[in-house]
């Protein structure tokens, strides 16, 4: 995964050292920072269609065009280059699922439907797999606890847990295919299986103890149609491949697997993962999260759609991705480089991975 500490330089962190999990969890709230975060960004909360639509559509169509190149190319090097480009483009397109879990349902008319049609269903990852799940990660009393679907104390686990965590992403495309082609249709006639699949295999979560509650109302109806679309697409892929050859599907699986591994690596450095299940203050949650601000330009490849400002996003979850850079500039100018705010800024992917590895080596 491309990253370079020499190209991605940012203020070095002053956060708690690895192993200071209890201190981090009980960090008193920096009320000045929290107040500034709200007051300085009041005008940045609108999701702008002129940015969302072109970005998502260009990412999706680039992914499809490059995937076609990877399938049709006769030169191995060209096919590989197209595959990498397709993986990066689809990865960016797919991460709009994160924005869909935050923006108001009426903010971008038609965006959710088109995204699911072009990206979510073809990748067998409809938006319901994150909507209703990701907000739990932002809940004040859930973050970093056993009730958080997106948190594990990775920094306090054994070193072997990190490569296992990373490499399981390689299995994701096949697992999604089996889910939509086999488990969901069987669940339609076997209610206990349907309940199990929903509770344990219908959310983009990393906490193995997380069980999802049954959907209700309008959300349940949306889930039904998205599940039906994903299952129909999975059966089409299998049927077409059995009749015309498996090479295109296998290349597609490899491309999606590359994006999944990249996302898993990003997840490894999205937080410091040092909380042991305690309820944390808002400032403690912020300091357990990570910003990788400019000037590093490679970050836009491995943390696109605003995810380079992940700590800031935890302060301001309703601010859309395209406004986070401006919010970061305002807060840095207002609070100064020695403030609590800048303590969540790190230099890049490799320094964060190194910190995480060192933490696992000293864990109890």
From TrEMBL:
Keywords: Membrane, Transmembrane, Transmembrane helix. Pfam families: FA_desaturase. InterPro entries: FA_desaturase_dom, Fatty_acid_desaturase. The keyword ATP-binding does not apply. One of its GO terms (molecular function) is oxidoreductase activity, acting on paired donors, with oxidation of a pair of donors resulting in the reduction of molecular oxygen to two molecules of water. GO terms for biological process: lipid biosynthetic process. The keyword Transmembrane helix applies. The chain crosses the membrane at residues 64-91, 111-130, 164-190, 244-262. Residues 78-340 form the Fatty acid desaturase domain. GO terms for cellular component: membrane. This is Fatty acid desaturase.
């Amino acid at each position: 995964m491309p990253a370079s500490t020499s190209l991605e330089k940012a203020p070095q962190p002053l956060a708690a050292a690895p192993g200071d999990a209890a201190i981090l969890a009980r960090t008193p709230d920096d009320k000045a920072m929290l107040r500034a975060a709200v007051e300085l960004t009041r005008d940045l909360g609108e999701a702008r269609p002129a940015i969302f639509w072109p970005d998502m559509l260009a990412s999706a169509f680039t992914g499809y065009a490059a995937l076609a190149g990877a399938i049709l190319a006769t030169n191995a090097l060209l096919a590989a280059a197209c595959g990498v480009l397709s993986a990066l483009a689809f990865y960016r397109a797919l991460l709009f699922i994160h924005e869909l879990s935050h923006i108001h349902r009426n903010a971008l008319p038609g965006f959710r439907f088109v995204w699911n049609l072009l990206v979510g269903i073809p990748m067998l990852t409809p938006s319901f797999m994150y909507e209703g799940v990701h907000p739990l990660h932002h809940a004040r009393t859930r973050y970093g606890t056993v009730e958080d679907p997106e948190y594990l104390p990775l920094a306090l686990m054994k070193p072997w847990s990190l490569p296992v965590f990373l490499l399981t992403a390689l299995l994701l495309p096949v697992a999604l295919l089996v889910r939509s082609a086999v488990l969901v249709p069987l669940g339609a006639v076997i209610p206990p299986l349907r309940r199990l699949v929903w509770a344990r295999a219908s959310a983009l979560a990393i906490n193995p103890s997380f069980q999802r509650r049954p959907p209700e109302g309008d959300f349940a109806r949306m889930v039904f149609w998205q599940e039906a679309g994903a299952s129909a697409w999975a059966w089409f892929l299998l049927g077409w491949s059995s009749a015309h050859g498996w090479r295109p599907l296998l290349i597609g699986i490899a491309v999606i697997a590359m994006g999944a591994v990249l996302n898993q690596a990003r997840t490894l450095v999205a937080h410091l993962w040092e909380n042991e299940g305690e309820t944390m203050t808002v400032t403690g949650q912020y300091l357990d999260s990570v910003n990788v601000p400019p000037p590093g330009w490679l970050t836009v490849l491995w943390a696109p759609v605003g995810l380079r400002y992940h700590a800031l996003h935890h302060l301001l979850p309703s601010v859309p991705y395209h406004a986070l850079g401006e919010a970061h500039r305002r807060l840095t100018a207002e609070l100064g480089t020695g403030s609590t705010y800048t303590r969540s800024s790190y230099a890049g992917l490799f320094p964060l991975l190194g910190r995480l590895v060192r933490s696992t080596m000293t864990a109890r």
